[in-house]
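Troubleshooting: if your tokenizer reports a length mismatch, compare your output against this known-good record of 66 residues.
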Amino acid sequence: MRFVRTTEGQLVIGFFAILYVVGGALIWYYYGLGGAIAGWLCLTGGVCFFVLLYGLVSLAGWWANR
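Known-good structure output:
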């Protein structure tokens, strides 16, 4: 179970890292610096939302198994 949890975390971190780098670079290329900053802010909002949902689901799972 620990392997699954660490692998899942690594995949999620890798996904968001690639999204930031590749997505940010493409936005910068097509829309310039202002668009890239706005895109990174929106990506950060998405990451925060994902972390919040993941935390709530983890908390619910911990509470159910307690």
